[in-house]
Amino acid sequence: MNYHRAKINVATLILMSSPSLVMADVYDQQDSGWYAGLRAGYSSNEKSCMDDRISCDKTDTGYGIFGGYDFNQRYGIEFSWNDIGDSRARYETYNLDGKLKEADLALKISHPLNEHIRLYGKVGAAFWDGEVTGGPIKLDDNGVRPLLGAGLE
């Protein structure tokens, strides 16, 4: 994504949330407070094996823990830590094991659809750490990537 397009996307997000800014005072504080949870699911690390592999297992069970604080029905902040899963590849001369973990921090903007269901969007940053080991190889890398998400709660 180029810089100009990112600027337009951020401006659009701000404009779309402007009515939310005005309406936030309308809702009472009954939906504010701390929350926490666990998650688990299927994980597939698509880029975890090179083309010259003999075999590759890039699927695993991923899991994580999350928590956050809702300031009101509209705005909150959320943190999570996730073990994305492990991958294993077998090559002619060595076997490699990969591990990927991630922590993220996001602003959460919600819109109540009815008394029990809210549509939410998240924007933030994810901090990842990956490691590959096997035979004489030990690689370690980390970085930051943008985080966007949406869902129902």
Quick description:
It is built from 1 helix and 7 strands. The chain has one helix spanning 3-23; strands at residues 33-44, 55-57, 59-70, 75-90, 95-112, 118-134, 137-152.
Describe what this molecule looks like in 3D.
The chain is mainly beta and 153 residues long. The protein is built from 1 helix and 7 strands, in the order H-E-E-E-E-E-E-E. Strands 1, 2, 3, 4, 5, 6 and 7 form a 7-stranded antiparallel beta sheet that branches. The protein is elongated, with a radius of gyration of 20 Å. Mean pLDDT is 81; it is low at 1-29.
Distance between the termini: 29 Å
The helix tally amounts to 1
**Percentage of residues in DSSP E strands:** over 45%
- Rounded to an integer in angstroms, the radius of gyration calculated over CA atoms is 20 Å
* Major sheet details: 7 strands, antiparallel
Number of strands: 7
Give the ordered list of helices and strands: HEEEEEEE
- Taking pLDDT < 50 over at least 5 consecutive residues as the criterion, the unreliable ranges are 1-29
The overall pLDDT average reads 81
Described by its quaternary structure, the protein is: single chain
Structural class: mainly beta
- Helix content, binned percent: 10-25%
Shape: elongated
